[in-house]
Amino acid sequence: EKFKEGLAKTRQNFAGKVNDLIAKYRKVDEEFFEELEEVLIQADVGFDTVLELVDELKMEVKRRNIKDPADVKDVITEKLVDIYNAGGGQNGLNIQEKGPTVILFVGVNGVGKTTTIGKLAHRFIRDGKKVLLAAGDTFRAGAIEQLEVWGRRVGAEVIKQKEGSDPAAVVYDALQAARSRNADILLCDTAGRLQNKANLMKELEKVKRVIERQVPGAPHEVLLVLDATTGQNALVQAKQFKEAAGVTGIVLTKLDGTAKGGIVLSIRKELNIPVKFVGLGEKMEDLEVFDPEKFVYGLFE
Ligand code: GDP
How far are the Cα atoms of 225, 226, 287 from residue 141, in angstroms, in the given order? Predict the structure, then answer.
């Protein structure tokens, strides 16, 4: 239900337009496919993905001898799920049986990183886990305080130092605290902006090294948070972070705020990194595990 509500805009713009197209055409011809391409590109499915999808659709339509546009819809949904599932990477989170599971969050300011940490902490706590938060964004004014607000809201302790301190030192403290308090999960915030990109990436590498030294096998996940409403721009950011931070999964926020939810598919296709969660609102319950079948079928239902 939450999924359906949160995707209302995309459903209208994407699936709604596909439905209109199907109603408009009597037969499946070249013109039909051209218009379909247009709809998919407008929904931010991504140019390469659209071309591949439409090529495969044409083949499948021929193979199954489909004449009625209404029958193409099922093929579209099947192919969209297939394209998503063809990408590599592990879908669920890599959670350790014996904690702490360390998850590092990266992404530029404003994408919803802090909110996502709060929401995810809430999920884990609801499942009976002990969660600690590391206030590793020591750069942005107010970031520590904002994380503390989320910590109080969901019932997670925040490990912090003062603004401007070394994030690697904060994370070091948090790792010690996680061990001594037997925490199951440690969620580490990081800065989204330093004076320049090279600085930001260097800082992330340093934080990662501290984690690697303290907990063998950690970080268990590096989650890149991206804002769905920024469309193709999100992809550019993702490419930069992918190299520097060794991203293992994407959290795509604000999917409720865009009609171009097809961005999920372009991200998957172009980066080969799974989308692990999607943000569907500002409240603590508004985070859903991303399930490609639920997503695609939910759109076209
Ligand atoms: P940060 O700078 O990356 O830590 O971003 P914040 O967590 O402060 O979030 C920036 C804004 O986006 C806040 O107003 C959040 O409430 C909002 N936000 C975060 N996630 C979502 C989401 O999934 N949907 C919507 N509609 N808003 C979100």
Answer: 19, 21, 25
Phi and psi for 104 in degrees, rounded to 5? -100, 135
Chain segment 169-181, per-residue pLDDT in tens? 999 999 999 999 9
Residue 142's Cβ-count burial label (10 Å; 0-12, 13-18, 19+) is exposed
CB 122 within 8 A of CB 151: no
Cα–Cα distance for residue pair 123/129, rounded to 1 Å = 9
Q: Tell me the DSSP string of 173-212.
A: HHHHHHHHTT-SEEEE---S--SSHHHHHHHHHHHHHHHH
Task: State how far the Cα of 296 lies from the Cα of 280, in Å rounded to an integer.
Answer: 15
> What is the residue with the minimal CA distance to atom 11 of ligand 1?
112
CA dist., res. 250 & res. 240, Å (int): 13
3-state secondary structure of 65: coil
Q: What global pTM score does this model have?
A: 0.94
For the CA of 110, the closest atom of ligand 1 is 2
Rounded to 5 degrees, φ, ψ at 155 are 85, 45
Please give the C-alpha separations between residue 59 and each of 37, 78, 102, 128, 168, in angstroms, as whole numbers: 15, 14, 45, 49, 53
Is the pLDDT at 21 greater than 90? The verdict is yes
Q: Which of 197, 202, 248 is nearest to 225 (CA)?
A: 248
Alpha helices in 95-141 (DSSP H): 113-126
Q: How far is the CA of 227 from the centre of ligand 1 (A)?
A: 8
Quote the strand ranges of the chain, DSSP E. Answer: 101-106, 131-134, 157-159, 185-188, 221-227, 249-253, 275-279, 287-289
State the closest ligand 1 atom to the C-alpha of 225, by its place in the atom list counted from 1: 3
Q: How far apart are CA 221 and CA 63, in angstroms?
A: 42
